[in-house]
Specification:
The complex is a heterotrimer of chains A (229), B (247) and C (230). Chain A is mostly helical and 229 residues long. Chain A has nine helices and no strands. Chain A is elongated and about 70 Å long. The model of chain A has no long low-confidence stretch (mean pLDDT 88). The radius of gyration of chain B is 18 Å and the shape is globular. The model of chain B has no long low-confidence stretch (mean pLDDT 90). Chain B has a six-stranded mixed beta sheet with strand order 6-7-8-3-9-10, sandwiched between helices. Chain B has a four-stranded antiparallel beta sheet with strand order 2-1-4-5, with helices on one face. The longest helix of chain C has 37 residues, at 11-47. Classes of the chains: A mainly alpha (229), B alpha/beta (247), C mainly alpha (230). The interface between A and C is large, with 37 and 39 residues.
């Protein structure tokens, strides 16, 4: 086991870099952060659309969100893998494919979190902003969204944990994130599958459990803080 | 200034406003009172279109304010509204609460908005709390900030929807003093309240509402000494019971 | 290039997809049957008054939940099978090891999430109910069974239906260890026919159809049995 770690720890951490593309745990983290970072604005737009007073906006977005949430992520990845090259005109790298799939998928889930966040702000807040003469967009930007996003922070970090786990599916399209690397190591070593996969499991555990604890702290802080009157 | 003409409003089959016709002049201070469910909050909320009406007209300086083409945001910026639940923005400081609308809607520069806000906070006695956050203030203080925030838009008309009903008793007078000060400076005011002592002292006219209608409108003297409508008499005698709060 | 659904829907390829679809459903049902009792057990562990049992429940939930399903599948199929004695291992490989490992991984994973939903549901029942049962002389387990759990059921069913939806979608991940469920068969058909659009369209519709049914069940349940406050 010690020898296993000694030989492969760097490969596990950063893949074949610099002799190849970045991989391993670092890639997992980068992919997860990029995916959530891009999915959040998409989620806000879709969440706003879900709370819109206009049916023409609300219904199509609701349908889109339901379709994406009823489809396995793997399916979305395959759609991206087979059709992004056709749509964009050039070869898309595995990273870009995976990123696109994760952004669309998480955007739909974040839409629901954003929607709940917006609807959780007391009506008096938006009434008062409108009474002062602020328009719908000014009200959203200056009063509702800042409060909603702050309240949503625990859910957002929890979604980040989920996104990190979802990056593991990059394995299937050959993206060299940490699960794929583990598979490669196992294929080379052959005699220590339990050790390899337990290490993989432990890595995810430390990462995700650590973040979940941050979520707990955030939730507690949120419950104690500012109460809207 | 404000003209109600046969205004009616329904919530489903419940008639909240029943054919209300009345005029409020510029510079007038009107107090609206009555039992719960009488329609007084609904009435005041129709003035700045927080509630729509089902029939009739409301005219502000001759303009029909419930007509479809109206620029509602611009219209509302000319009316100050103070809520029962204060509704301060918790994520902004007291000062930012007061500068937000002037900057975004009236396009004031930050310096101008701050100057105006600080002057108003001083007027309501809270200049030293400018950089505090709403959660750090008492209810009475929050409501005074809410009044300053509404005044920051320099509205010709101020509306108050039960401004002291959510406050602990010892904080009621600090807020009423601010409103009285506004009245003495010639502000056109419509205030829905249960504080009858305040009404007697400050109002030019008192409206008594029940079941969606204005049953009595009179000067404070006439209202308290010579009430006409039987419901008003009933209301006043209930107020004089040993457990009543004001009067 | 024309779109021709008949190629993927009929004949050999249609058979493959159908078999995959049926296996996906089978995996879901078998996992549900196994995961639910396990989840209830873990939830009760976490709710029990004894610290060591609480710790055990906590370790299970956090240990399983924080590891992606893919890693679970790889561990059981590539790792754990190597620890088995020779005879058992051979037997396993002859009897659809892929599906068995998939069920094991899916059951443990789903049970961890369900346990949390069940725990929340039980905790939402006021302690006074439990105390009243104990005051009448019922032990811990009987108080749970007769008083708390029946009330908790109504609150817990919607989140559990939501977990079932997740489970249905998660069966697709079993393809990485070679389980011949719908996603695996879809890849097979695509490789054989080069008809990616048709294959994936049909597969997506199949997943959405069952997702729709599960969601509908949830909506109907909440309509028929709305949560009534005490």
């Amino acid at each position: 086991m010690i020898e296993l770690i000694h030989n492969y720890w760097l490969y596990f951490l950063i893949g074949q870099y610099p002799d190849g593309p970045l991989g391993g745990l670092v890639l997992t983290l980068l992919l997860g952060a990029a995916a959530l970072g891009l999915a959040l604005p998409l989620g806000v737009v879709l969440g706003l659309a879900r709370t819109s007073a206009h049916r023409a906006i609300r219904w199509p977005v609701t349908a889109l969100v339901y379709v994406v949430r009823g489809t396995p992520l793997l399916m979305v990845i395959f759609w991206a893998y087979f059709f992004l090259p056709a749509v964009t005109g050039h070869q898309t790298s595995q990273f870009t494919t995976m990123l696109a799939a994760l952004v669309v998928f998480n955007g739909a889930y974040l839409a629901e979190i954003v929607r709940a966040g917006i609807q959780g702000i007391p009506r008096g807040q938006s009434e008062c902003a409108r009474a002062l003469g602020l328009s719908y967009w000014q009200t959203m930007r200056a009063v509702i969204l800042p409060q909603a996003l702050r309240n949503m922070l625990p859910s957002l970090v929890a979604q980040f944990v989920t996104t990190l786990k979802e990056t593991s599916l990059g394995y299937i399209i050959g993206l060299s994130e940490v699960s794929f690397i583990a598979g490669q190591i196992n294929a080379q070593v052959l005699t220590q599958p339990v050790q390899v996969y337990t290490t993989l499991a432990l890595t995810y555990f430390v990462l995700c459990f650590g973040l979940s604890q941050i979520v707990r702290v955030l939730e507690k802080r949120g419950a104690r803080s500012v109460v809207t009157r | 200034m404000i003209d109600f003409r046969n205004v009616s409003k329904f919530y489903g089959s419940f008639r909240a406003l029943n054919d209300v016709t009345e005029t409020i002049a510029r510079g007038e201070v009107v107090v609206v009172c009555g039992p719960s469910g009488s329609g007084k909050s609904t009435l005041i909320r129709t003035i700045n279109r927080l509630e729509p009406i089902d029939s009739g007209q409301i005219l502000l300086n001759g303009e029909d304010i419930h007509r479809p083409g109206l620029d509602v945001d611009r219209f509302r910026s000319g009316i100050g509204f103070v809520f029962q639940q204060f509704n301060l923005f918790p994520h902004l400081s007291v000062l930012d609460n007061c500068t937000l609308a002037p900057m975004k809607v009236r396009r004031l520069s930050e310096t101008e908005a701050r100057e105006r806000a600080l002057a108003l906070l001083d007027r309501v006695g809270l200049a030293d709390k400018a950089h505090a956050f709403p959660a750090q203030l008492s209810g009475g203080q929050q409501q005074r900030v809410a009044i300053a925030r509404a005044l920051a838009m320099e509205p010709p008309l101020m509306l108050f929807d039960e401004p002291t009903s959510a406050l602990d008793p010892e904080m009621v007078s600090e807020v009423l003093l601010v409103i009285r000060d506004l009245a003495h400076h010639g502000q056109t005011l419509v205030c829905v309240t249960h504080e009858m002592g305040f009404a007697r002292e400050v109002a030019d006219r008192i409206f008594f509402m029940d079941e969606g209608k204005i049953l009595e409108r009179a000067t404070p003297e006439d209202f308290f000494e010579r009430p006409q409508h039987p419901r008003t008499k009933q209301f006043l005698s209930d107020l004089r019971s040993p457990f009543a709060r004001s009067v | 290039m024309s779109i021709d659904l008949s190629i993927v829907l009929s004949g050999e390829f249609g058979q493959w997809l159908l078999r995959g679809f049926l296996l996906s459903i089978e995996l879901t049902l078998v996992t549900l049957v196994l995961a639910f009792p396990l989840a209830t057990f873990v939830a009760l562990l976490r709710l029990s008054p004894w610290k060591p049992l609480q710790g055990l429940g906590f370790a299970y939930v956090e240990g399983i939940r924080n590891i992606p399903l893919l890693a679970h599948l790889m561990f059981w199929y590539f790792g754990a099978t190597q620890l088995l004695p020779e005879g058992t291992r051979t037997w396993l490989y002859e009897h659809d090891a892929e599906s068995i490992c998939a069920v094991v991984a899916l059951t443990l994973y789903t049970a961890a999430f369900m346990a949390e939903d069940i725990r929340s549901g039980i905790r939402s029942i006021p302690t006074a109910q439990f105390e009243a049962a104990r005051a009448l002389g019922f032990g811990y387990l009987r108080s749970m069974r007769l008083v708390v759990l029946p009330q908790a059921v109504r609150i817990t069913v919607p989140p559990l239906i939501s977990q079932t939806l997740s489970l249905w979608k998660n069966t697709s991940i079993a393809t990485v260890i070679g389980t011949a469920e719908l996603m695996y068969q879809a890849q097979r058909v695509e490789t054989a026919t080069f008809r990616g659009a048709e294959t994936f369209a049909v597969t997506t519709v199949a997943y959405l159809a069952v997702s729709g049914v599960i969601t509908l069940l949830g909506v109907l349940y909440q309509r028929r049995y709305p949560v009534r406050a005490a």
